[in-house]
Amino acid sequence: MNAEYSHRIRRILPNTLTFGNMLCGFYSVILSYQHEFITAAWLIAIAAVCDALDGIAARLTKSPSQFGIELDSLADVVSFGFAPAFLIYLVQLKDYGIWGLIISGLFLMAGGFRLARFNAELVGYSKEQFKGLPIPTGALTIASYVIMFLHGDYLSITMQWYTMVLVIGVAYLMASHVKYDALPNPNRESIKKKPLVSLFILVAAVLFLLYQGAVLFYLFLIFIMYGIVNQILGFIKK
Predict the structure, then answer these.
(1) Could you read off the pLDDT of 185-216 as tens digits, one per residue?
(2) What are the helix (H) ranges across the chain?
(3) Of the candidates 83, 121, 85, the residue with the CA atom closest to the CA atom of residue 101
(4) Residue 85 in contact with residue 105, Cβ under 8 Å?
(5) Burial 146-157 (b: 16+ CB within 10 A, else e)
(6) What does each C-alpha distance from 83 to 18, 47, 123, 173 come to in angstroms?
(7) Cα gap 116→97, rounded to integer Å
């Protein structure tokens, strides 16, 4: 077996997970159109799991590549750009006419900008920090917001204003230069380097199991604020 053929075989698993991510995003859009909003939001979460696993699989199989990065970004535009923008538009923002369309479109455009900038500035295949809120986190914030408030029947006219502020804020953070820590790799050395992030992931997983996802939105808000506070502290130190 030559080296090129072996490399192609190793890429099958990560690329399959990337296509799983893309398919979940596509199906989420279909379910949003059918007004199955909660299931559509959970499919965005499943897409995020596939997105995380494809990177881990690429590192474990030693098969990261420029092709994989480009394919991953295309999948992310579908699952974390278009799918959540379409979901939040149908759930809340369509009642605002052209302004609802612009605001939900702003989320999609900011996500696309975030991915293009990441690819253009990427050096190597691993990152310790991200410039701007990662697009999967932005998408999961919107999806978890929909899950929590639809479960609680909180989506009133008053909440629509909060929705607009949330979508604009998340879109801005994705396009911003606010730095966010990358998720630690599943090894002891990486966990030691990022103990707070690792602890946050562990606590989030436990709370997710205990409360069946109802607390996810607040966990993502905490993560978003963590990056903002770190940025402010960095300015103060300078």
Answers:
(1) 555 565 566 666 666 667 766 766 666 666 78
(2) 3-10, 12-33, 37-60, 66-76, 83-91, 98-121, 135-151, 157-175, 188-193, 195-211, 216-237
(3) 85
(4) yes
(5) bbbbeeeeebee
(6) 16, 10, 28, 18
(7) 29
> What is the per-residue pLDDT for 58?
78
**Structural domains of the chain ordered from first start:** 3-178 (1.20.120.1760)
The pTM for the full model equals 0.85
SS3 for 95-153, per residue? Answer: HHCHHHHHHHHHHHHHHHHHHHHHHHHCCCCCCCEEECCCHHHHHHHHHHHHHHHHHCC
Calpha distance 228→224 (Å, rounded): 7
Let me know the angle formed at the C-alpha of 215 by 179 and 153, rounded to the nearest 5 degrees.
120
Task: Give the sign of the dihedral formed by CA 42, CA 114, CA 92, CA 102.
Answer: negative
Handedness of CA 188, 191, 195, 201 (dihedral sign): negative
Closest C-alpha to 66, from 6, 11, 135, 3 = 11
Using 70 as the pLDDT threshold, list the residues of the chain that sit under it: 1-10, 63, 123-128, 152-160, 183-201, 204-205, 207-214
Dihedral pair phi/psi, residue 51, rounded to 5°: -65, -40
172: Cα separation from own chain's centroid:
14
Determine the residue type at 30. I
The label of the residue with tokens 């590192």 reads 59
Q: Considering just the CA atoms, what is the radius of gyration of the chain in Å? A: 18
